[in-house]
Amino acid sequence: MADDNSLQKKFIDSSTVSGILIAFSLVITAIFIGGNPQGFVDWRSILIVVFGTFAVTAACFSFSEVLSAISAIVHTIFYRSEDVKKAAIAAVQISDIARKKGFIGLDKNSHLTSHNPFFKNGVEMVVDQINAEEIGRVLDNEADSLAYRHAKSIGVLRKAAEVSPAMGLIGTLIGLVQMLGNLEDTSTIGPAMAVALLTTFYGAVMSYMFFSPLASKLERNTRDELLVAKIYTEAVKSIANRESPRRLELSLNSILPPEKRIDYHKIRQNEDQV
Asked: Which residue did the predictor score with more confidence, 21 or 39?
């Protein structure tokens, strides 16, 4: 039987974190190699871009949606991963238990579904003898709710990626106006140019090195979660209809990527050898 810990793992998404950190490291290294790293720190530019981006993004959504997006960022970095192939194997194994031991067997082996609340909820509805059509409707609604929540968070991140360069442009215009308005005082040209250029720099960094990658990764994670949800939905409906595990295998393989498809006979052989 599949180990719960092998199905889901809570860990830092190394590709997301390493990619962003490497990109920032390259920029910082280039700044230090060029000398005068203090020249790239300007609190007025940070005030305009960082807080301005947050304010304008919040104006486009509600504060609850912005806070949900922050939570989604944490979820993206500390992604709770579930391999779709292992999920399919677990689904077939639970189906096999139901075929051999009936719904009572499912109730006694409820710990085997504890790794995924979505799957656990579906199996519990089967044990309660709710019909397959009703179970499918409930699980489909849960999946739609998941997709809707993530879509809102993705929208917030996309909007922030769109707004931050615009705030950088606004800061650039402020700096240029200040510079052109005080050309007779040469001491103000340098600070004004710093605001003008650094706001554009900060805006581009926030957009293309932070918000856009996180939005893309959250979209990918959402697709993976919805595929896992579809696998478990098909499995629960199959169990409720008392279909054979072999038929469930064929159904799951039709929605799995070719490299992730499963072989029920090999699963049975592995179980017999344990």
From this structure: 21
